[in-house]
Predict the 3D structure of the following.
Amino acid sequence: MSEARQSDEGLAAMMAELGVKARRAGRQLAIAPTDAKNTALQEAANELRADAANIIAANQQDMKLAEAQNVGAARLDRIMLDEARLESIAQALEAIIKLDDPVGQSIAHWQVESGLDITRVRVPLGVIGVIYESRPNVTADAAALCLKSGNAVILRGSSEIQNSARLIHGCFARALKTAGLDENCVQIVDTPDRAAVGMMLAGLDGNIDIIVPRGGKGLVGRVQDEARVPVFAHLDGVCHIYVHAAADLDMACAVLLNAKMRRTGICGAAETLLVDAACADTHLAPLITALLEAGCAVRGDDAAQQADSRVSAATEDDWYEEYLDAVIAVKTVTGLDEAIAHITQYGSGHTEAIITANDDAAADFLNRVDSAIVMHNASTQFADGGEFGMGAEIGIATGRFHARGPVGLEQLTSFKYAVRGSGQTRPK
């Protein structure tokens, strides 16, 4: 037998074992008491703090490898961990502890004419596979959310964060053991072999129930094309800021700069600015100047180019582009209807915001724009489960089935019907 064949068989056996262990651990976790899950989360937060120096050292190894591959500043920012970011991760775990346990919650309750008493009850989804790139924090966020919602999880981070992810996973393994829970509730695929991803997408012999991808277009596109199990995902984050005719200029500048420049490499970063023609004379040039002075390249339509000679011409492709960098596209629109039409045509269904003092226009925008998240007078960078009070998120879903927007605890549950009777039989 060739070494390649042995290697393939070895990987397949390893992945199959992960699936079996996850299914077994998930059945136990589904009925675990809330106190045990919360204890595990607190212990994980404690472990992250205690092991911070080692995690940061491992992350520096990941950063050096990524720099050698010339991955770009935005991607390096997503990979990087420091003491402040690790503390934020630990605090996110503690925030999840404070949230209600969704498992076993009654969603609805009613009785029917036959006398049957029916309750719709939240239950875990089962085993969740999370495939992610560039973000070591996803290791902790996904593990914590799955743990609290009663789901076993199999984590597969990209090779560029392998050292960081391995140590973060170790914190959860020790925490689960301390809490008296099965360590296999949270497992990691500790190999850079891309064939492991294909095996997860195939479902590991029916042992994975949901796949969640976090990464670039290549990863998410592959997952959506190849997955044999349901997927929570978004392919692009083409987020818009629409400055309405009744927008306060100072507010518009502040929100726009934050939405674009706070962190350019996240999916909630604004990629297109739409400015109403009714306020273009007073608002367009100052907004563009603010962007340029903040170090953002601007690609715009004729009006934007006339407003500032430093603006380069936008092409049709720019309206579809998720730059994930300090670049933005700018267009002037004639009113709310054209703004919504532009978002409908070019948007990705992620996050859109309107800046206006007109409540009627805001209500119309929030009602008519069909994206997972729509905002009024707020930065699109608030498109985050932690900012929504969910503690953290496992991703942003832009589909229309089951979950949409930040995927937190409730979104990681399904439901079942508990039916109570007193000996009823159904008549012929």
User: Anything to note?
Assistant: The longest strand covers residues 117-124. The two ends are 63 Å apart (CA to CA). The CA atoms of residues 133 and 393 lie 15 Å apart. The mean pLDDT is 94.
